[in-house]
Design goal:
Strand content: 15-25%
Order of helices and strands: EHEHEHEHEEHH
CATH architecture: 3-Layer(aba) Sandwich
Oligomer: single chain
Structural class: alpha/beta
CATH class: Alpha Beta
């Protein structure tokens, strides 16, 4: 039995949107990936204001329900230390908990310029292989400081959770930005409607 290979996609998922799912599905087209695990942050390194963990998990579960190989991993949510969610700590915990699994970190090209500023970048550079997905306006340099297993260039749009929250707060449509069931949940719960 071969070891499992997993692509990990971290984020606040505040809320989860269609590009998150598209990135996961494009990653699964790489035959070396068996599953994609979505890892929601507990406390964000850059102190984003997040809605409750429970509601974010509810939306993730709604969004991934049709997809057998996309799963949620709550490893950061089970951390009772109240430390911020640094990528390097999460990867170390995953490797310790699942020693027979190979992990690849899925990263948007918009993050490449700041990657050297990430906590313990040296560990990431030496111990992690990345799947890079290209976002509009953020080209991927020919030379990178990290190990790249694969690059996704398949028309990932620039949907953002920020745009969705803004549209909801202004009473604008979020159709085609999130799945219909997530859209229904957002409206039913009245989420983000009072943000400024």
């Amino acid at each position: 039995m071969k070891n499992k290979s997993v692509g990990i996609l971290g984020g606040s998922f505040n809320p989860i949107h269609n590009d998150h799912i598209k990135i996961a599905l494009e990653s699964l087209k790489n035959r070396f990936i068996d599953e994609v695990w979505l890892i929601p942050n507990n406390l964000h390194p850059f102190d984003k204001n997040l809605i409750s963990i429970r509601k974010r998990i509810n939306m993730i579960n709604i969004a991934i329900k049709p997809y057998q190989n996309i799963k949620i991993c709550d490893i950061e949510l089970n951390d009772n230390s109240f430390e911020k969610s640094y990528t390097v700590n999460t990867i170390k915990k995953l490797k310790q908990k699942y020693p027979d699994t190979t992990f690849y970190f899925i990263l948007g090209s918009d993050n490449l310029n700041d990657l050297e500023k990430w906590f313990d970048f040296e560990y990431l550079k030496n111990n992690v292989e990345f799947i890079i997905y290209e976002r509009g306006g953020y080209n991927i340099p020919e030379e990178l400081l990290i190990k790249v297993k694969s690059i996704i260039r398949n028309n990932v749009s620039n949907i953002s959770s920020t745009l969705i929250r803004k549209n909801l707060s202004q009473g604008k449509s979020i159709k085609n930005l999130v799945s219909p069931d997530v859209e229904k949940y957002l409206h039913t719960e009245g989420l983000y409607q009072n943000e400024k």
